[in-house]
Amino acid sequence: MLEDVFTMPVHSAAEVFPMLGDDELDELAADIKENGLQQPLVVKDGTLIDGRNRREACRRAGVMPKLVQLNGQDPEAFIISANIHRRHLTKGQRAMAVARIYPEGERGRGKIDPARKESETVSFTRIKEARMVLKWAPELADGVRTAAHSLDHAYEIASDRKTKAEAPTLRLQALRATDPDLADAVIEERQQLEAAEDQARGRRQREREKRQGIYDALIHIDRFFFVIGDPDHQRYIKDVCTEHPKELPIDRVMISINNWRTAIDVLEKTLTE
Length: 273
What we know:
61% of the residues lie in helices and 4% in strands. The protein is mainly alpha-helical.
């Protein structure tokens, strides 16, 4: 029986909390040997739910620990409550412990993230930061758990990795919003993202130049700056009307031309061909 107690597997949620150091375990063992175990171990279905340090101290003291069964409570919630409220942990350690027990929140309408239940003890913002560390910098998570380094330090590294990893996706989304054909070319590996972005910028520049051309044409027409008999001016006005019929309708040009009765036949023929 003694061997069963000391080899009993530990619940995975309990293992996210760091054990006491050797000196503290020796002190606890000495106290148990002199005064007995005051708080029994909590077990459920052959698994140790709470009491890893007490069990180890009992082993060192040669004392058989007492056991009680967890009765109807959620094991994860019990473990968090028993350890976070009892231990002198940093805020980062607490957040990391909860994040490792509840690595992902419940998804879907009406579902509540179980980690929010611990928000009175642990900031939910810090829990989300710890989750980001678990996802983007998992090798740093154990250091946060043992207070080898701060959650702030690990989160900064994880956040930077996330930003760099997601940047191409966000850039591609932005490209699709303006130039879906170029985005498709990138996805189909017919074009590099940087080259597609350069091409999109070129399109924007040409669009700006066209808008400027419309403005210039309107000024020429409204102020009669164009030379009626000049073929280049006629061609320019016609091209603008053709490419931008909404912004510069031919009717508007014709009204201006009608004010130049001597040239109406020449330019009207050119614009309406």
